[in-house]
Amino acid sequence: MNVLIEPGPFCGKIAAIPSKSHLHRLLICWALGSAEVFVPCRTVSEDIEATARCLNALGANIGRSPEGFHILPSAFRSPERAALDCGESGSTYRFLVPLVCALGLRARFALAGRLSERPMEELRSALRMHGAVFEGAGTRSPAVSGPVTGGIYEIPGGVSSQYISGLLIALPLLGQSSEIVIVGEAQSKGYIRMTLDVLESFKVKVIPVPGGYAIPGGQSYAAPEMLLPEGDWSNASFWLCAAAAGAGEITVTGLDTRTNQGDSRICDVLARFGAGVEVSNGAVTVRPGELRGIAVDAGDIPDLVPAIAVAAAAARGETVITNAGRLRHKESDRISAVCAVLRSLGGEASEGADNIIIRGRGALAGGTADSCGDHRIAMMAAVASVICKGSVKITNAGAVNKSYPGFFEDLASLGGQFTKEDY
Description:
By secondary structure, the chain is of the alpha+beta class. The chain folds into 2 domains: 2-17 and 231-421, Enolpyruvate transferase domain (UDP-n-acetylglucosamine1-carboxyvinyl-transferase, Chain, Alpha-beta prism); 20-215, Enolpyruvate transferase domain (UDP-n-acetylglucosamine1-carboxyvinyl-transferase, Chain). The protein is built from 12 helices and 23 strands. The protein has a 4-stranded mixed beta sheet with strand order 21-22-1-23. A 4-stranded mixed beta sheet has the order 2-14-16-15. Helix 7 (233-245) packs parallel to helix 9 (305-314) and helix 7 packs parallel to helix 11. The longest helix has 13 residues, at 20-32. It is globular.
């Protein structure tokens, strides 16, 4: 599907969709629990569908209705080899590989898009050291067999926080105690804290120690009565950046400022650009301002970069985004993709090994932007239309379904005008 968006501002009020980062963790922990629960969730992305689908393939009992998820207690079983279709979901893959190993199961994964090319070897290596067996590593259909033993799991902190979160979820299930030793500084630390908070809600004990975490063995997951998924700051950032860059005020509701989602830092980033930002009672309102280029360290907020790039293009002067090397291993090479979209729409951007330099002009011309099959690049191109003089055509715009299937309908509710073109 291609989408053609006419230039013009967005404005109004919109509710944040559920955070897929939070919901991945909740679904896995609830599936491991022993209580029946209903999770209200009207908007479900392809990534969340992948996690629910894979958990069911392992023996969980997760039902889906238009209102949310219904989860029944179940015992994870050990089929000859479970078939786990992860789609393009990196969280699903990196969380469930350690879980399969900890439960002593066998599974073959199906990986779509660039998922088989994204970093994974460091996690595989740590699990191999404790007994895991891998086949087809680096292919689209890798297999893994457990069980693994407790002990010390060394993992680099600078590749993916999902490695650490996956181990934090899985290792409490082992009979022996374990310790995660993080080598180097951990990136995206907010998402590790989110995992720890969810585990605490399920009465799972993790002890912070210098350089990592100690995890007692033999634990079980005790489901809380109710724990709702948070609003998604990552996807809300596109509307907030559109407001900062364009000529309209936008309010996004359902955003918890006490969250561990690192992408809540978008408020600080936009304020530094010069936008008007107001946070009150779970809602964030952003108003346009005279934006000026700034320096942004993307180490803990890599998913914000495509949205920030729109604000940077609307700003006057140079914006330098550093510590962004991990973006090259997302659904697309996002460093190159962000620069390509801005240039295709008439902007000026250049890339380094782990940085992006955007020279803002206050406006863009419009044109055709390739989403590269990446949901965040498609959304970036869409919200860039607020500063374009001409229309914006996005190729493969259906990529938004990975995290935000109702994105274009929400765009329309804010005044955006678009037409869909089927291939």
